[in-house]
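pipeline stage [seq->struct] | target=IS1481 transposase | organism=Xanthomonas campestris pv. campestris | residues=394
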Amino acid sequence: MTKPEKVDDHARQRSIAEVPAQLTVRDACVARTHVAACGRGVVARTQADTEDIARSWPSALRVRAPLKAVDRLLSNRNLQVERSVIDHEMAHWLLRGAQPVIVIDWSDLKPDKSWCLLRAAVPVGGRTLTLLDMVVPGKQQGSPGAERRFLQQLRALVPDDVRPILVTDAGFRTPWFRAVSAMGWCWVGRLRGRTQVKPQDVRDEADQWIDSRKLHVLASNRACELPPMQANRSDPLDCRLVIYAKARQGRKQCNRRSPAKASRASSSLKAAAREREPWLIVASPQLQAPSAKQLVNVYARRMQIELAFRDLKSHRYGQALEDSLTRRGERLQILLLINTLAAFASWLAGLGCEATGIAQRLSPRNSTRKLYSTLRIGREALVRQWPMEPVSRG
């Protein structure tokens, strides 16, 4: 009688040991299903808020159950771990070619600046597709430590045979450029403020360094490259330096009370001065193939990540993440993951629409100019359920 009891005991122990694995697999399947449902909700309602996602839950008669499902999903620890796997697969999808362009920038996530976002993205079709998002407390925004951690995570995503060009704005300084160069990658940035520069072949003395703003008089609407330069007197950095002044766009913000007059608000004047300021574009010395004009075009693609941030945060033009009441960084990270997957699905649908000619349905007039981003076209196609079939042009 004792032998069967031992067999039963072993079987019982084995079945108990298998329960966590079974639960993990089941939970992973449920999490993936809920992520897909949330992604469809973001595409359908264009808002990344918890309640709006629950309201657009597929085949749900009430909001309560989907709201609980979304709440559990945002706190799913397994999904936090699996997020790196998703980022890795996305990177292999998006990083095509030996030297792709990756745009990197900071952005506030909350009006009170309690949380901020450091994002790496690939510019495609008028917007960007996210490679990596890192949410950090607002007090760490722009800190070298956070940027170093971000670079380490980005390095783990990029394939070994890829040497990307990282494009940043004037907020990224010499320590960032040196860290990127140490990884064997190239960089493109911008100089603003009182940063001092000098030619490389000139002796390193105080009277040889000049304020970079004195170079603005050399700017024109044709990109001009100076001889090899050094930037930042306290820690000299070898670089290529290109000067360029954008053509005036003719835009002005009107006064609310007197629409015929231009606004004199401090924010408007500051924005106007910023747009009039010439570009002092710096690039790594190893980046020799692009011409001065090509470097300007590479840097100009950085604007696409600003448009993506507006699409993400604005309740008027985008997905209203600035209105979300989520206060924990881990939950914000999952919301951003859902947004990334929804944008990726919209991009794929948009590519299909552009290839088959369906994108012309969204255009109010016949035009050779692209009126809408690929992501916008794809989202409209998914919401309107357009058939992905070639359109006759006869």
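stage status: PASS
auto-comment: The chain has two domains: 2-77, 83-245+279-323. The domain at 83-245+279-323 is CATH 3.90.350.10 (Transposase Inhibitor Protein From Tn5; Chain A, domain 1).
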